[in-house]
Design goal:
This protein has 264 residues and is of the alpha/beta class. The chain folds into two domains: 57 residues, Sun protein, domain 3 (Alpha-Beta Plaits, 2-Layer Sandwich); 198 residues, Rossmann fold (3-Layer(aba) Sandwich). 29% of the residues lie in helices and 26% in strands. The strands form two sheets. Strands 5, 6, 7, 8, 9, 10, 11, 12 and 13 form a nine-stranded mixed β-sheet that branches. The chain has a four-stranded antiparallel β-sheet with strand order 2-3-1-4, covered by helices on one side. Helix 4 links the parallel strand 5 and strand 6. Helix 7 crosses helix 8. The chain is globular.
Length: 264
């Protein structure tokens, strides 16, 4: 059974107001550890097709996918990079946490996915995002350094969502190599004292703990910051490396790790 959640866009509406509006239409909502997120228990219609959705009052996403932006915890003074941004669930969440201030560079390599990113940023009324359709590995040529970086890496979990095929060992190895390349580039793009949050929706160790072990062994300018598990009511356990987190079923599987650049 897939659990369904919505994240209220507090830039546009108060969570209680939205809850009342949807409940008046017959939607049953349950509160979560986040004051602006609800589990959808029952709905007489698709929650992705309501006027409130089209107005940008909320985003439909798993509660697991709300954790990485919270762990990154950007402030309104930060320059933030979202390395793999489409369709924009985490980008718009970061903007919400920053109260639409500061600046977010949202990078997406696939032009076919830029459409959903743009649509969601516009629908949610986001004003602090610059979208770039490019390979994020080329960003270091631009001479930019970031306070906070979110690397929600492409993973074999994305393949699982494509019901027409199953994940192979080759998929996992391919993803793991790509993730290592991305996290290495991400650390290069951080300011000294800057923080990178790495996440995937894969359950595979090679794509999670394996990537973190790789980067900690390869570089001496980065350290792991422990993440506190304050996520009540969802299935969160410690990952295979102390200080990392894993979300496990019935919630969408997720892995989250937090790194800090300790010298430039």
């Amino acid at each position: 059974m897939n659990l369904q959640y919505i994240r209220v866009n507090t830039l546009k509406i108060n969570p209680e107001t939205l809850k009342n509006r949807l409940e008046n239409k017959g939607v049953m909502l349950k509160e979560t550890f986040l004051p602006y997120a609800f589990e959808v228990l029952e709905s007489p219609f698709s929650v992705g097709a309501t006027p409130e959705y089209l107005f940008g009052y909320y985003f439909v996403q798993s509660i697991s996918s709300m954790i990485p932006p919270i762990v990154l915890n950007p402030s309104k003074d930060d320059l933030v990079l979202d390395m793999c941004a489409a369709p924009g669930g985490k980008t718009t969440h970061l903007a919400q946490l920053m109260n639409n201030e500061g600046a977010i560079i949202a990078v997406e390599i696939k032009s076919s996915r830029m459409k959903s990113l743009k649509a969601n940023i516009n629908r949610m009324g986001i004003a602090n995002v610059i979208m770039l359709n490019m390979n994020v590995l080329h960003l270091k040529e631009k001479d930019l350094k970031f306070d906070k970086i979110l690397l929600d890496a492409p993973c074999s979990g994305n393949v699982i969502k494509d019901k027409s095929r199953s994940v192979t060992k080759e998929d996992i190895i391919y993803c793991s190599n790509r993730q290592k390349e991305l996290i290495d580039a991400g650390i290069d793009l951080l300011k000294e004292g800057g923080v990178l949050v790495y996440s995937t929706c894969s359950a595979e160790e090679e794509e999670n703990e394996g990537v973190i072990e790789y980067i900690l062994n390869k570089r001496d300018d980065v350290e792991l910051l422990p993440i506190e598990n304050n996520f009540k009511g969802i299935n969160v356990i410690e990952g295979g490396i102390e200080g990392t987190l894993r979300v496990i079923p019935p919630n969408e599987p997720f892995f989250i790790a937090k790194l800090m650049k300790i010298k430039d």
